[in-house]
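B., you asked whether I could sanity-check this one before it goes into the benchmark set. Here's the sequence:
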Amino acid sequence: MDGKIVVKDVKKSFTSGKLNLPVVGGVSLNVADGEFVAIVGPSGCGKSTLMKIISGFEKPDSGSVSIDGAERHGPSAKGIVISQHGSVFPWMTVQQNLMFGLNGNGLGDKAALADHYTAMVGLKGFEKSYPHELSGGMIKRVELARALVVKPEILYMDEPFSALDALMNLRMRTELLRILTEERHTVLLITHDVEEALFMADRILVLSPRPTVIQASFDVPFPHPRKLSNPVLQELKEKILGELGVL
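And here's what the prediction gave me:
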């Protein structure tokens, strides 16, 4: 089956001294163009390692990752990673941060494009501000805008909003979904938050404990915006938590 992202039997182990630690135990998945797939799993199961392999920042021991039918051997301009650790340069303004990754255009064109995405994430008027002048939620918006401004086809998101308080987390989820209605991206999200996955994703994959494999897959057949109080979504939540061993 063709897909935007095709992962075939990927395995990965790490060696520490004489100890060999299997982390990814054979993962295969297919993500369609424009699909939003969330991955959940127990802490330490290998979610982030799997994301690094798929995004090209880690090599698997065996198996393969293909993007648009071409096998991946490293990072690509087709995708960009948004992580929980942050990537904003503190010595640059919002506009300068967004312009940093742009190539091939004149300075005026770059500034206009940067300002367009600044406005898209709700930060119009803060183009000349520095990160230390912004709140944590605003900085996350800058990171999102900086990822989007280079027009990636794929967004790899590794718990991007986990450091935010609950209210700001919800606002950022809603903001991202709003943007995705304006611009088409394929999204792969790693999260420990089952409700976040249900709120945003078209499909949710549940990983097993390490060495991780895909233990279960759940479609989320509801348009946006979604109400998590929906009985069907609540039933899905219970099934996912059951797979995770919580219920």
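One thing to flag: The first helix runs from residue 47 to 55. Otherwise nothing jumped out at me.
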